[in-house]
């Protein structure tokens, strides 16, 4: 079930069933009234085990607000005695990355990241009143979980909803389309950043241009043609 | 109210819009939530930095007063408690004023309010409700109430008003009067007539705004 | 198991504060507690205004009606006291040369006819405003605050749209100073010689001047919103403004001067030196029927949860808790508690007859109902009626 909803509209949900608040839904602490606060497509799901109805709004935005368990790509902007200062988006409040949040970290074994490096990490705490924290380790097992320094490659800034699609929607065809053209490494940050790296710079550029145009058009049907055209263009320029 | 509006006109900000009504044209950008300067930071809520730039020349006290009124309208509709210790920058650039700037500012103000609302929606900032604003004039002699008066009509008016209303429940229910700024010579009856006509016109406007927003945003979310 | 439940229970002790401490740490709650008793933190009733006392023209050059103090350049003044706040308004002026293209030439009409014409053309373009500078003293110096700027601009806009100052009233009816046959200087004014038409035509001048009025408004010990105090003080001061007469020197009237503009080209321009008469003055002809007075109101919901409850009357307690938040109208906002906790405000400029020239309604808090608006308009009318009599006392 999905409807387009605006801030302040009445929520079309069953009032007798408990509600689980997702993104875009706010419960006023004074009146205990539950209202949507964002503009987008309302999703109501009753599939959860608890029997409660989970309500959230899929909305479009470009500014990332940290939320626990999100995968993000950040830039190291400063070092402190026990943590890095990491910027997830220009002008946003920075988040902290503790030296202990790396695999095999100990007091003596410090990570060797430098200012300006890119890291792929997971948000581990996100209280809106406090500075958010990220980690480069699977905190449940304490082992490496594919996070850490992103070397070389290229960063693409896109909409937040596009990265959500890319990461969570199994049927989203973009990665398959790209794979038809080249071999690549990719990291998708829910803070609206995508990192790609190929063996050859021209292929990286092809990926970059394809992803950017696909994000702008956001029309799944055209992805194949876009990728084909962009890669051809890059190749033709290279040959010249 | 006749108008053209566009959402998402600028690439390098989080939200933007352009609102054109008759000869008045405003472009608005929203950036936020971002890190505030230490003096702007509020411990429990989102700080708002509101800037209005005039069509010509540099900003004066006239724009300061407009900023003050715009702030009064936007503060209650933004859900500021969602973003404590953060800042939201809202900048309105008036491209064409569409009225005699030395005497009136009603047209510019209501266009700024509508443009800022659209830009906030585009930026995905959490909001409590929707808003819509119109300028109104009461004409000399005829005492006719005109919504969205032209620059010429303003000049020959007896009183001029800017009305902004807050809507909930699908744009059908007026939650509150966000702003009614009246200047000139008017009486109580006229004031209530203005509120009545204004409610009707704002409701129509909010309906159109919803359509514009939906047309722009739903393709972005389609997958 | 039993141990666990014991740990889960937490005893909550109510914390009590003296009233003045509570007012500092939670002005909102303190205000609600006061309102639940039917009074406000300043001990006024909901719709009670502060007493206002005024002194007019105590600072101006016309204090002594016989001898004009030539060194004093204040043309009209007012000192207004309301509660702890004092507002000092002093009106000064200047003379500018008019750009003749933009002004309708209405010089050939007499005073009464002029009034008729301005009444007919009752559009904003025929009215001027005053240039106010509001200064709220806070014990420190620095750039002007946003509040000072917005109040100044709002005063300017309101004077303009209230149609109080016709442009015509600010025109300089300049005289000519000439040397008489016996060597003494005398000034002739065209309007003083009406029975002698030959003289009048001689004194016709090509150039036109008009007065500009400035108001310096100082606010001392600000305790709450001050726009309405500034406006009322300005209104009182404006009603007593006298404009000094001005004349040009006969000899200067055919003076020629070379003016260089940025060293590029030289132009020759005729200049008149306009001088102010040290003794003679004319009262400023304002549209006195448009004089109106300002008042402000706040709307706040009484929060049933913060009501002070009577311990002897436990049954009533329940009733109060069941109540919905009830909005009340508070007149003449004062004190920090009211200013920071009341977000819905109504500011009205009204005259005693029930005509309104300015209304600002901001609904950022409690819902402003039509009844609230009606009530505030009525109170404004009564208040304006009261304030308008003060000047003649």
From TrEMBL, chain A:
Domain Exosome complex exonuclease Rrp40 N-terminal: 19-63
This protein's record includes keyword Disulfide bond: no
Domain K Homology: from-to ranges: 153-200
Signal sequence residues: none
Domain of life: Eukaryota
Keywords, in A-Z order: Exosome, RNA-binding
Subcellular location: Nucleus
Short name of any one Pfam family annotated for the protein: Rrp40_N
Classification via InterPro entries: Exosome_RNA_bind1/RRP40/RRP4, KH_dom_type_1, KH_dom_type_1_sf, NA-bd_OB-fold, RRP40_KH-I, Rrp40_N_euk
UniProt protein name: Ribosomal RNA-processing protein 40
Species assigned in the record: Saccharomyces uvarum
Lineage, uppermost ranks: Eukaryota, Fungi, Dikarya, Ascomycota, Saccharomycotina
Gene name of the record: SUVZ15G0150
TrEMBL record, chain B:
Record-annotated Exoribonuclease phosphorolytic domain positions: 4-125, 136-200
Subcellular location: Nucleus, Nucleolus
Protein origin, superkingdom: Eukaryota
InterPro entries named among the record's database cross-references: ExoRNase_PH_dom1 (IPR001247), ExoRNase_PH_dom2 (IPR015847), ExoRNase_PH_dom2_sf (IPR036345), PNPase/RNase_PH_dom_sf (IPR027408), Ribosomal_Su5_D2-typ_SF (IPR020568), RNase_PH (IPR050080)
Record-linked Pfam families: RNase_PH (PF01138), RNase_PH_C (PF03725)
Membrane-crossing segments per the record: none
Alphabetical UniProt keywords: Exosome, Nucleus, rRNA processing
PANTHER family cross-referenced by the UniProt entry: EXOSOME COMPLEX COMPONENT, EXOSOME COMPLEX COMPONENT RRP46
Family as reported in the entry's similarity comment: Belongs to the RNase PH family.
Protein name in the entry: Rrp46p
Gene that this sequence comes from: SUVZ07G3300
UniProtKB/TrEMBL annotation, chain C:
Gene3D superfamilies: GHMP Kinase, N-terminal domain
Pfam families: RNase_PH (PF01138)
Keyword Transmembrane attached: no
Residue ranges of every copy of the Exoribonuclease phosphorolytic domain listed in the record: 48-186
Keywords: Cytoplasm, Exosome, Nucleus, RNA-binding, rRNA processing
Recorded superkingdom: Eukaryota
SUPFAM superfamilies in UniProt: Ribosomal protein S5 domain 2-like (SSF54211)
InterPro entries named in the record: ExoRNase_PH_dom1, Exosome_comp_Rrp42_subfam, PNPase/RNase_PH_dom_sf, Ribosomal_Su5_D2-typ_SF
Location(s), subcellular: Cytoplasm; Nucleus, Nucleolus
Signal peptide stretch: none
Membrane-crossing segments per the record: none
Protein's UniProt keywords contain Cytoplasm: yes
Family to which this protein belongs: Belongs to the RNase PH family.
PANTHER family according to UniProt: EXOSOME COMPLEX COMPONENT RRP43, EXOSOME COMPLEX EXONUCLEASE RIBOSOMAL RNA PROCESSING PROTEIN
Protein name according to UniProt: Ribosomal RNA-processing protein 43
